[in-house]
Each structure stands twice: as C-alpha cells, then as structure tokens.
Amino acid sequence: MNRAELFDRNLLALHLKAPDLCARLSNAETTLGFYNLVNSKSNLPVPFIKRERPLHSLFDPSKEAERLIATVQNSGFLILFGLGGGYHAQAALQRKDIQSIVIIDFNLNACAELLSLIDYVSILSDPRVTLIVDPNPEMLFNYIVSVYKPALHGGIQVIPLRSRVDADPEPFREAYETLQDCIHTISEDYSVQAYFGRPWFSNTVRNIFIAEKHSKAISMGRDVSVTAAGPSLEIQLPHLLQNRKKTYILATDTSLPALLEHGIEPDAVISIDCQHISYYHFLSGIPKHIPLFLDLSSPPVVASVSENTCFFSGGHPFTRYISEYWRPFPLVDTSGGNVTYAAVALANQLGASTITLYGADFSYPEGESYVRGTYIHKLFANKQDRLHPAESSFSAFLFRNILLTKVDSETSWRYETKPLISYRKKLETLANHLEAQLVIMEGKGAPISVPQKLHRSKRGLIKSVFTAGASHTTGSEFLHSYAKIVEKMPDLLVPLPQYMMQLSETERDVFTTLLPLAAFLRRKNPDIPLHMLFAKVKDMTLQQLSPFLSFSAK
Predict the structure, then answer these.
(1) Whole-model pTM above 0.90?
(2) Cα(281)–Cα(474) distance, rounded to whole angstroms?
(3) Alpha-carbon distance 120 to 112, whole Å?
(4) Does 456 score more than 80 pLDDT?
(5) Where are the domains of the chain?
C-alpha cells in the first residue's frame, strides 16, 4: 500500500469522530521528512525523528508499551503525549478498565506524515480513542473538563512518549501545566458532588412541586448592596444604613439574621446551600413579602420561609435538565462555590450598574469567623456553660481547619485557608467579567482586587426581570417521564465512549443528571466496577423518585 492510500485510510477512520481535524490534516504536508521508519527486531515499524532519535524500542516496541501501560493503576482516563507508532495506545486498548484514551501531539505536518507511514486504523476507529493535534491551552482545558468524569473513569494519568516529548518539550510542558489546572478544577467540583450528590437530587425533586406555583417577576435597582456575613460587616453597617434609601439590599442567607438584629430589612435574600443547616439562617424569621432567590437544589424547608420564593437553576445538571425539559428557570452563576459570589452574579445579571459588597472578608480577621447575630453565634451561646464557654466553641470551629495560615497587615491580622482563598480568587475573576462596577467596602479581611470601570455603565436604565417561564407539563408528569427514561437506559456494559454513542440526545442529557449521584456512590464504594456503579445509580434514582410517583398516581 502506498503512502497516499495509507494516509486516506487513516483519515477515513478518524473522520467520523474528528471531521475538523481531518480537514486540517488533509491540507497538511506529508513529505517534509520529519520521520523515517526502521523495523525493530520484532519486525514492527519504529518512527525515527529526522533519522536521529527512535520513538520506541528497536527490539520490541509492542512489549515495551505493554510493560509501561501495565504500570497504570486505578486510572480509567489515559492521556498519551505523542502519537509515535501507536504502540502505547494499542496496549491501553487491551485493558478493559481503561475507558478513554486521549492522544495529544504537536506539529500538524509531522502528525500527517506519521499517518502516511503507519496504519493506525484499529486505533483511530476505536470509540475510546481521541486524537488531538496542536491544542491551545483553552481548547485542551475545555475538552478535558467536558469529557473526564471522575466518578465513572476513576483516576486520570498522563503517560509521555519520552523521545517525542524531549524533541519538542515546550508545547508538551504547556499542555501538562494546562492539564494540572484542569485536574484541580475537576477535583474541586468532584469533591463537592461526592458529598452533596444525593441531597442535590432529593431536594430538587421535592422542590419541583413547590416550583409549580406561579412566581412573581422581580427586578432590582441600578445600585445594589450585597451583604456577606464576615466580621467586617459589623463595622460597615453604619455606611449601609446611611445609604439605605438609595440602594437595593441583596442579603446572603448567612448575613440575614445579623441585618435583622440591627433593624435592617433587606430587599431580597439569596440562598444556594443544599444542606439543611441553611434553614438555621432563617430561624430569626424573614418578612414573608421579601423575595427569596433560591437554588432549585436547596432544602425544601427553606422555600417555605417566604411567600415570594423565586427559584433559579445553578450549576447542577439536574436543575439544568429541569429548565430545559420542564420549566425554564433563570440560570444564575454559582460556580464560585459560595453564596456571596452567586449574589454578585445575580445582581449583575439583573442590570445593576454598581454593586457594593459588604462583609466579604474571605478570611478570619483577628480570629473571628462570622459577624455577630449570625446563627453560629446564637448556637454557641445556647450551648455554653461554665465549663464550656462560647469562646471554646468558636476556637474549635476555627481550628478544625488544619491548614490555617496567619497573615499580618499594618493594622491587623487574619487567618486564611485554601478554600477561602479560592473563593476570593474566583470572585476576583468574576469581577473582571462584570458589566457592573464592583465596589468592595473597606474591612478587616483579605483584600479583594477588582478592576475599575472607566465609564459608568448605563445598562441599568432598562431593568432586567427575574422570573420563571411556563411549565410544559405538571411536575408529576415530568417526573414520570424522567423516571421512565432512567429505567429504560441500557446497562453500562461497554466502554463509556461507546455507551454514550448508543444513547439518544435526551438519554445523554439524563445520563449527565446522574453524574453527581455516581460521585456520591463512588465515594462510598471506591473500588466498585463501572457497570455495577451505574446499576446502583439507577436504583438510587428510582428509589428517590418512587414516593412522588406513587403519590401522583393516586
């Protein structure tokens, strides 16, 4: 077979999965002499880089690859740096526990030349294999985030084809750094799913029946004040009171009792936490007329505290599925992982031109955790006695964090933790993309860096409105149809990419809604095989739905 025919065969195998890459490779030059082939002693072709450096063993490249792949443990997602002769990919494909293989290489012309020299059809046609050539950091980051599912794949591992990487180290180094950032982002999200996957789902199912009620349309003013519950809020309250008549106060649920204790009634409250502890923020009461912006995955008991509950969809797959297939709810950015971030994002979404942020310390200034008046102060005050004063409870609460870092400033000091630093940095990133000007009130916490807008926004002249759309059917009918899809989904007995190809678009959307439950179960059953994990996920889903399906059938 001549080189042109071999090249066409390889492109044909690749075309169904990567038509854009095929088009780029079709226009590449295959005769620039980046590679030449030498047969190993086992009579297998070994590519040489410019006749100087072999990419594989000259004795038996296949055995060499098998030994290397044998070192992969508990990693169902494999990233190979360098295409080479394809031996590493071939060895990985012999492992049933490896669900996905991503091959990353650079230099389009060199890759096209390899495709004209070696038969990769069995590799490129396998649904588990993806070839990526010359990715930029953003493309690589977004791709891995979209396809790597820790609950299903298990671990992720990078295996470099050393000779290839050494010949062109800079792009592979950049790709590795991108992957490290990507894995960090995925790990943060996965750890949250592993703990809250089940309450997210069960809360959302229960809230569907509450969310059937008509919700009022709500708008905000151009000037919005967001109150967080850091200790600095107490010294900032006089400024808030001074400007009360000029601003729309959007309180985080944690800060609500502190505001009410000081006689400040906010214009609205926002809550995103799926834990029942969030109900404690409302024990002091909330005027029934005040709008409560609430994530669909929040505890249903929280929805009952206001007569004006306004549900929205955060980042959870099931709430997004509900918005698409049942009733369209506003989408609010909750990716910052904390309610202060969500409040700022909401105010910006509803047309604010200036957002002033109070009580956002993102640290423990002078060892204080929350502003006085929050639920934790009342909880510890009620628990104290002569032998266990409230101060000991606050100390235990603070020092439960093993990795506390003390930071000194000119006038004060504070403790910081990695999660709080992460929250602050995410808010700073959000600030760079806001249309509104974010203003940080001076306090005792960690400084927050925000850009200064050169021109005052006029966007608030036309108010945006927050409201849910009309539902396509009743909540009961929606849950029935969802349960039927889950029940009929096939068992996961083939590799994950092949399984996804077998599903319809709606089934793939439903499959995505089940990933947080898979993470929750994987945490409790780390060594369970994938097909058994998915069976348990289906069982748990149907068990969670069963009481509501039975009720609606009566």
Answers:
(1) no
(2) 31
(3) 12
(4) no
(5) 3-188, 213-445, 473-553
